[in-house]
Amino acid sequence: MARKGSNRWRLRLIGAAALVVMLGGLWGWWDLRHWRPNKLEFPMQGVEVSGEDGAVDWKALKATGAGFAYLDASASAFARDPAFVKNLDDARAAKLRVGAVHRYDPCQPAESQSANFATVVPRDRALLPPAVDLDMLADDCPIKVTDAGVESELMTFINQLEIHTGKPVILKISKRFEDRYHLASTIDRNVWLVRTRFQPDYAGRPWTLWTASTMFDSEAAESPLKWVVVQR
Hints:
This protein is α/β, with parallel strands linked by helices. The chain folds into 2 domains: about 1-35; about 40-230, Glycosidases (TIM Barrel). The protein has 6 helices and 9 strands, in the order H-E-H-E-E-H-E-H-E-H-E-H-E-E-E. The chain has helices at about 1-35, 60-65, 85-95, 110-120, 145-165, 175-180, and strands at about 45-50, 70-75, 80, 95-105, 130-135, 170-175, 190-195, 210-215, 225-230. The chain is globular, with a radius of gyration of 22 Å. The N and C termini lie far apart (about 70 Å).
């Protein structure tokens, strides 16, 4: 009888421990989806939005604490975000500062990509500096592109974008892209890094923008958003 009672208590303790772990996991998941960096440390905070995020209530997002928005505009030589124009108009109407993002493709010529961006994004001095999203690698290009070729073509693209916008670009560099090409230290532009919750250091130099969360949950949007902060 004593052994049966001992087994029951052991099962209860195991059940209680499992419940604590489950509740802790749920709290951690909820906290991660609502967490943002401290506003006192990073006063300038905003979002990155694409058409894939669905409808956004920009006024509600501003009330949440967003002061700016980077909008996905174009990708590679031909792709364009169908929501860019509407998002641009609506974000501006909500008094947010706005910038455009191009997803760079090392397999496509710089001239074709810059022409694609210029077709979508107007010449407007009120826009924030354009951001170049660097994540795609050249390893799977149908025509081989050397590492030197990636850097050379990227510099051509950067120069063409800066001529169009009149502002220096920001390099939004993923960790895998930096690990592969090590361009953060060779291209003299501000960098935008990505790491959930913890400040990133993979560029080897200070960052200007940081995607601190890729899953910020808000009633202002249909889907979780990318929350971005600025370092002064």
